Amino acid sequence: MQRKEEKSQKSLYTVYPDRPRVEDEDSFFKIIVSSEDSHLPQEMNLTLIHLNTCILEETIHIASHTHSYVHTIVLEELPVSHNGIGLGIELSSSSYSCSTAIDIGTGPIRYGFVSDFSSEDKERHDEKVEYLLKNHITHVQFYDWAYRPHQASPEQENISIYEDSMGKVIDLSVIKDLIEKLHMVGIKALAYGAVYAALKEYLDAYPEQALYDIDGNTFNLIETFFIMNLACKGWRDNIIKQYTYAVDTLNFDGIHMDTYGYPKSGWGYQDTSLHSLEEDFVSFINEWATCGNENIFNNVGGWPASTTSQAEQAACYIEVWDPHTRYHHLKELIYTVLPKGKPVILAAYLLPFKQRDIDKNKDSTYPVNAALLLIATVSSLGATSLLIGESGVVLTQPYYSDYTMLSVRERDILQSYYDFQVRYRELLYDSEATDITESHAMGENREIGIHAGTYPVSHDGRQATLWAIVKRHTRRISIQLINLIDQHDDEWNADKLDCVITPQVRITIPQYSKTMRAYTSAPEVNGGRAVELETRYGHGVRGPSIIVEVPSVGIWRTFWCDVS
């Protein structure tokens, strides 16, 4: 029997886990249930769901006149998976329901950021941690916290409040407090640190440590940050010293190692031959990794990700820039490094949010549509994105302190997509899955049929199409459907129109076994819960097949078929 789908409704209650991820050795975790405007019901039903299977049901009893409640969930007889598992967590009362998710086992890095460290910001730390937990952030970048790019702390030991290079006020006690709070809930804290940037004062004192062009001129960013020579022992020793201070003194877990994308080669002081920074980056990453490998290096524009992805670091991180402007460019960036075996993170900043504020068009849904399509795209391709942080803001450009606030509605809908990303981890982040879209579902030699009525289906995220991403897993076929039918362009960093056309999709899959069962789910429907679809047997593209009708496809819908 096919279960009826219903559009998710806003709940009076919220629920989120007490940590971003459960480690393999843990046997329990906790959820926090709260309500700002009313008391919690005295009785709520808890359901724990793995993909399409309910693995736990119980009734929670809550004391009367309570606004917040913490409940412990004991994990028993969980499904076994080589890639970890995702779980949906649903709570319901007689009137309302709410949901969240959690995953178990080492897996993708979900990256967030913080950048406000003044004395007044300490009051918002609990709010920040709660927001990061609700969105399942595993690692947080502390952006622009240091005194200077070449000197992490002021020379005077008793100074704890200072201004950074851009005039932002920093209180070290605030940084230490937030790191401690993140550690208490299992979130890693990474200190931002450019690998080769120094101010003019340092350059003037140590010109032999700088990098030069063929005419003997230094390189710089906005005439403020000068590029030093990472191959020079003096500079390398200095920056290692700053990183060590961050980890040993402030208790950061690692470093976000930033680069600017240019230059890609240069001359050392009085050198006679050009050398590439690519080799310097790899040797430096590996040298610093001896102090711990919870580090992330920025491959600006995708360079040199193919090389650095093999170095000793926690993930392969790519900051996306022109000419990678279209959805298929994101696919190319991700698929270039995904086979290296590390989690892949894209930093793809969304200018539409900033433009919305400039235009004072606060009710526009186009920026959040762009964010939802970005999350759907990156997740469906097996990566994650750095997009949100603080207590509800979004990145629109590379200077993180100039972020844009999200509305309450935008925070809620983005959270539903991050819940979905975690809940269906096995479909999205299976390292043994193979993308078979072009070989099996497109063109003359296809075996899998995907039909959206009169609307075209694409394999590369073209505008005015339904984008299908088909993967073969060990015991299932999964298909991610991303709806671009209403869009007039395929640029990811642009306003995106509302999803009005929501086609029903017919999928035919060769009958790989006698018994095949099909399921579907969507972030905005049933709180992300999967429903089983009715299957019938008939003649497909290449012979005996199962035929399934998938309900209306909004922005993002996932489909999978288990092959027994």
What is the structure about, briefly put?
The chain has 564 residues and is of the alpha+beta class. It is built from twelve helices and 37 strands.
Write the layout of secondary structure elements.
Blueprint: E1 14-17, E2 21-22, E3 28-34, E4 43-50, E5 53-61, E6 68-74, E7 85-92, E8 97-104, E9 111-114, H1 125-134, E10 139-142, E11 161-163, E12 169-171, H2 172-184, E13 188-194, E14 197-198, H3 200-205, E15 220-221, E16 225-227, H4 233-249, E17 254-258, E18 265-266, E19 275-276, H5 277-289, E20 296-300, H6 305-308, E21 315-319, H7 327-337, E22 344-347, H8 351-358, H9 366-380, E23 384-385, E24 388-389, E25 393-394, E26 404-405, H10 408-423, H11 425-428, E27 434-435, H12 437-440, E28 449-451, E29 457-458, E30 466-472, E31 476-483, E32 505-510, E33 516-521, E34 531-533, E35 535-539, E36 544-550, E37 556-563
Parallel strand pairs: 2-8, 9-10, 10-13, 13-17, 17-20, 20-21, 21-22, 22-23, 29-30
Antiparallel strand pairs: 1-3, 3-6, 4-5, 4-7, 7-8, 11-12, 14-16, 15-16, 18-19, 24-25, 25-26, 27-30, 28-32, 30-31, 31-37, 32-36, 33-34, 33-37, 35-36
What are the defining features of this structure?
alpha+beta, 37 strands, 12 helices, 564 residues
